[in-house]
Amino acid sequence: MLISVIIPAFNEEDYIGETLASLKRATDFLRAKEIVSVEIIVVDNDSADSTARVARDFGANVVRETSHNVAEVRNTGAESAGGDCLVFVDADTTVPDELLRRVVDAMAEPTCVGGAVDTDYRPAKLTSKIYLRLWRVVGKMTGMAQGATQFCRRDVFFALKGYDETLFMGEDVDFYWRLKRLARRRKGGVSFIEDVQVVPSARRFDRWGLWRTLIWTNPLVILMFRRRKKAWRGWYEAGPR
């Protein structure tokens, strides 16, 4: 099996090194137990910093996508990948050593089409901690999974036509829901890995005020404006995602 880890990255020089280091540890842990190959693909989203150089220094394959649309960036990475299993990891997310091992375990079930990994945000602000813990509960209750780490079989990804490039926000949740619908049609399933968690950066929640967080992470706001690029200018044009 070849696993392709795809990392969309826009101005992430301060974070991507830690992400790649954690993936290196996860790769070494996997190879110690399985004969599995892993390729790391970083999709440089026209960064103005040294994101691409840091990625190359870690031995990652770097491809470039100039369109500031994270769905398109993810898809560009998938088109460059050769793996049987595609794993999407955000550039500011560190992963546990067991991550790839757990993905291989999940995909060993022939009816599993893909899945996602639980998240463990660690903000400094108490209000953000409480808010994110509540969101974690809501997400589990509604069957929602973010794109900090998602995975699927290669043929399934292209059967779904990848991430929806008409969406500028919430493309990850949309993809997961479509993945679940396809699994039901095929009488298969998805795997939500909870026994290990990835750790996304909580920088926005620490930087934003509570009201801004409540508004811009509100699912109704995302649903209303997810196809309007201008509404998410701060995510695509004003610094790292």
Protein model, in words:
- With 241 residues, the protein is an alpha/beta fold.
- The protein has a single domain, classed as Spore Coat Polysaccharide Biosynthesis Protein SpsA, Chain A, CATH 3.90.550.
- 43% of the residues lie in helices and 22% in strands.
- It is built from eleven helices and eight strands.
- The chain has helices spanning 16-31, 51-57, 70-80, 99-107, 126-142, 154-159, 171-185, 203-207, 210-216, 219-225, 233-236, and strands spanning 2-9, 37-44, 61-64, 85-89, 93-94, 112-119, 149-153, 189-200.
- An eight-stranded mixed β-sheet has the order 3-2-1-4-7-6-8-5, sandwiched between helices.
- Strand 1, helix 1 and strand 2 (37-44) form a beta-alpha-beta unit.
- The radius of gyration is 17 Å and the shape is globular.
- The model has no long low-confidence stretch (mean pLDDT 88).
Task: Find the structural class using helix and strand composition.
Answer: alpha/beta
Helical run tally: 11
Distance between the termini: 31 Å
What CATH architecture label applies?
Alpha-Beta Complex
CATH superfamily: Spore Coat Polysaccharide Biosynthesis Protein SpsA, Chain A
Order of helices and strands: EHEHEHEEHEHEHHEHHHH
Unreliable spans are none
Count of DSSP strands:
8
Strand content: 15-25%
Going across the biggest sheet, name each strand in turn.
Answer: 3-2-1-4-7-6-8-5
Named CATH topology: Spore Coat Polysaccharide Biosynthesis Protein SpsA, Chain A
Helix content: 40-55%
**Main beta sheet strand tally, sense and closure:** 8 strands, mixed
